[in-house]
Amino acid sequence: MTTHAATLITGLAELVSNDPELGPGPLGLMRDAALVVQDGTIAWVGPAGAAPPADERVDVGGRAVLPGFVDSHAHLVFAGERSAEFEARMSGVPYDGGGIASTVRATRDAGDELLRSQLQRVVAEMRAQGTTTVEVKSGYGLTVADEARALRLAREVTVETTFLGAHVVPPEYAGRSDEYVALVTGPMLAACAPHARWIDVFCEPASPHAFDGPASRAVLEAGRAAGLGLRVHGNQLGPGPGAQLAVELGAASVDHCTFLSDADVDALASGQTVATLLPGVEFSTRQPYPDARRLLDAGVTVALATDCNPGTCFSSSMPLCVALAVREMGMTPVEAVLAATRGGAAALRRDDIGHLGVGARAEMAVLDAPSYRYLAYRPGVPLARTLEVA
Ligand code: NIG
Ligand code: FE
């Protein structure tokens, strides 16, 4: 392995290490800290006064540094837009997943170059706001060729790719959802699995377009047999089997969690599945926010993600999610920042990101502010960006 120059990072007003061995609280906060980065990993972290010599030096000028945001849920391979649907919702039309079909139409009609440029534009937007890892789902192709294409494109920007052929039943299969599930679990899975790390399903009996418990189970079990990790869209529009199914099958994460019963919370607390909350969705659909406090108090690991997509949340902003989680969901600033970094990493079953201890990947965000608190304290202000170290 080639060894590159070591870079010493100084001038930190605050370091959020997310490593409780390095400093107080779950954020492992350090003041007057310095970091040494070498070969893309954190080689040393400690008090600035004790920093070892390095080849290069970067002074962040009195800013806070934190692990880059881990956005563990996004749908970025699509064409078209649905601002009129958003406007209708703001006049009282509820979201039921029916609008997904219009994005499917536009995506099928689009060439690779259009999809790629849209995807790259949103990923660049994310990086400009401090996100260093993003998960990208398929789910707007819904044919064998279009789903495989979406995942090939997603692989160009991330290793965290998710096959979501079971997003909705496409119009050509209306009334034949069993046949569509057979396609998803058969030829579509075979074509998509080589390009995917994960499989996901929109498990939502409250939507006429999505999948019930038995169909969701069939999709997840087929994905697992094909070697994919499991993720679930669950309990977004109403109560349903998604959360408990996710725990039972050992899914890495169940996402949305807006409508949870006590039994769902108990199941999450006793299992290994992360509850990923997507507050931009409630903001953009006028649904009630999920009760993060109840999950945290029960001991559930919580992640925050954007769900960036043209329907329920066309925002790529993890700082917005942090601010909403604090203001609307009962999370403290510490809990929200942890959920947007280490929580997202847990939802992707990654321990090399989401913290800045020695050996972690040097994927960092820097704030134009002295403290992580400013993410919720100064909402809507572009404070965060990724910290690039050569
Ligand atoms: O996570 N709920 C299902 N899928 C997306 C929305 C997709 C869309 O409306 O285009 C979500 O909210
Ligand atoms: Fe989603």
UniProtKB/TrEMBL annotation:
4-imidazolone-5-propanoate binds at residues 82, 140, 167, 236, 312. It is found in: Cytoplasm. GO terms for molecular function: imidazolonepropionase activity. Zn(2+) binds at residues 73, 75, 233, 307. InterPro entries: Amidohydro-rel, HutI, Metal-dep_hydrolase_composite, Metal_Hydrolase. Pathway: Amino-acid degradation; L-histidine degradation into L-glutamate; N-formimidoyl-L-glutamate from L-histidine: step 3/3. Its cofactor is Zn(2+); Fe(3+). Its EC number is 3.5.2.7. Keywords: Cytoplasm, Histidine metabolism, Hydrolase, Iron, Metal-binding, Zinc. SUPFAM superfamilies: Composite domain of metallo-dependent hydrolases, Metallo-dependent hydrolases. It comes from the Bacteria. Binds 1 zinc or iron ion per subunit. N-formimidoyl-L-glutamate binds at residues 140, 309, 311. Belongs to the metallo-dependent hydrolases superfamily. HutI family. HAMAP family: HutI (MF_00372). Catalyzes the hydrolytic cleavage of the carbon-nitrogen bond in imidazolone-5-propanoate to yield N-formimidoyl-L-glutamate. It is the third step in the universal histidine degradation pathway. This is Imidazolonepropionase. It comes from Pseudonocardia alaniniphila.
